[in-house]
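Side project, low priority. Logging it here so it doesn't get lost.
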Amino acid sequence: MKTVLVTGATGFIGWHVACKLIERGQRVRVLARDPSRLRDLAGVEALAGDLRDRASLDRAVAGCGVVYHVAADYRLWTREPEEMFRSNVDGTRQMLEAARIAGVEKFIYTSTVGCIGVPAGEVGTEASPVSLNEMAGPYKRSKFLAEQVALEFAGAGFPVVIVNPTAPVGDHDFKPTPTGKIVVDFVNGKMPAYLDTGLNLVDVQDVAQGHLAACERGRVGERYILGAENLTLQQIFAMLGGITGRPAPATRIPYAVAYAAGVVSTAWANVTGREPRAPLDGVKMARKKMWVSHDKAACELGFVPGPAKGALARAVGWFQTNGYCA
């Protein structure tokens, strides 16, 4: 049995991918900048490394049959966007090159729904047209360019399959992710109002299962949206209200007000170096409802996600148990 490498196992999706592989009895190796940050992952081989350090990537892929490249610099604000491009774009290219030289048999690249085209008023699919000019902020731009690198390798014959998760929710959201932060802020009573926007929510455990299905049944060079339910932010808050007993916010913020708050908050963050309360790039992303279809993954991968409400309830419980909520 060849070893399976997972990058990003200290993060949300990567942790769940590693868990699913362990449950299947796979021999799992994880690559992390700081292996001491790995939690609740018994039985894995942990290697220290960095996507910007090619030698560490060569060591990580040695003897591996499959690579799940989940790691990414995921922030909606940074004072050094060039670092994000080094990790997400250059790091992905280096990981692909190392895997190709090592003779890896399948490479699963974790992209994002942000790279999916969503025409105004429509539901996006893998075939929807999209360009770099539509990517708001360094995170989305860097992930778009990284996805192009993955497609380049697939076009040259390397067995790369791409998955595009939507907004995952659930347990073990350590950082937490921007979606997880919405849950935490709601539970802590820090969501007094809402924007007229929409997300596609999906259980992170289903996303992890979708990664394994992409490895088993995904076609080389294809992209697969791993999502579940298209919901407005107001609907998400209503679900959280039902789970927690807290009242959902009833006031809607005009987009212009949110944009102004994003400008001020981000400008102050650039001065202080502290993460903004309302990152401007996040506000820009919220202008469009990111509603998509996972029909392709359902048809080709057998991807059948569960309801978002159960994942939200599990997220609330995990955040409360682990001290994220007052």
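Brief comment: The longest helix spans residues 81-102.
Revisit when time allows.
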